[in-house]
Amino acid sequence: MRGTVRKISLPRRFIADLMHASMRVPFVSLSRTLDIHQLVEARAQATQRPGWAAIFVKAFALVARDEPVLRTLYVKLPWPHFFELPHSVAMVAIARVEEGRDCILPEKIPAPDQRSLTDIDAQIRRAKNAPLMEIPSFRKILMATRLPLPLRRLSWFIGLNVGRMSANNFGSFGVTSVAAYGPGELHALSPGPFIVTYGVVRPDQGIDVVIRWDHRVTDAALIARVLTRLEQVLNAGISAELRGNPQPAEVKAARAAVT
Q1: pLDDT of the chain along its 259 residues, tens only?
Q2: Does residue 78 have a cis bond before it (omega within 30 degrees)?
Q3: 3-state secondary structure string, 184-225?
Q4: Could you tell me the pTM of the whole model?
Q5: Which domains does the chain show, CATH number per domain?
Q6: What are the distances in angstroms from CA 238 to CA 62, 116, 213, 241, 253?
């Protein structure tokens, strides 16, 4: 059968490289429905309602502040070891349309636990709407994706397996969702150690959350505790910020980020 040969766009080539790098990560997943009625009420009353991506980015980073394992990478160079980061670095999957084609590119958000929801949300919205080459992380990705395949494979291997470079390029956790397009449980892949996905808010004010993680880094018991803690943070710390009353620990962290 005759077909049409079409060029692979740079964003789609990046996804192909990302999937190649993710193939050997031994991912395990755990899903749970979280009761977020307090968060839903606080968000409904807020003057400015941040998107759910910003909410989950900050909430997971707040949990990771007290759980160093959630800030830990498995790297292979110069020998296999764990690399613990002083703070979280989030990678948010940004859906865009470029030249009439859908694409996904990750936006890096460093230390989200030390930033306001408004600030995080503004960065995510800018990454979604600003011209592609005005976003530093996108520009860097597309420049690297222009390299010939052998050089890309080498750069990905080094970038993933040197602790500092892995943190800078791929972060400590990712957040992605298809909730904007309706219900569904997404099990995403990434070369990073943790991926958080969330669904739509149910009528009973529950939300389905999936955490996928590199089994070399930790086990299911900790992730089960993390989901419990995530529910608490969403209903307490995040809700308090939406009401204009950040908790003392968050105020202290925000001041530390400024000084």
Answers
A1: 888 988 888 999 999 999 999 998 999 999 999 999 999 999 999 988 999 999 999 999 999 999 999 999 999 999 999 999 999 999 999 999 888 888 999 999 999 999 999 999 999 999 999 999 999 999 999 999 999 999 999 999 999 999 889 999 999 999 999 888 888 788 888 999 999 999 999 999 999 999 999 999 999 999 999 999 999 999 999 999 999 866 544 444 433 333 2
A2: yes
A3: CCCCCCCCCCEEEEEEEECCCCEEEEEEEEECCCCCHHHHHH
A4: 0.90
A5: 10-258 (3.30.559.10)
A6: 9, 10, 23, 5, 14
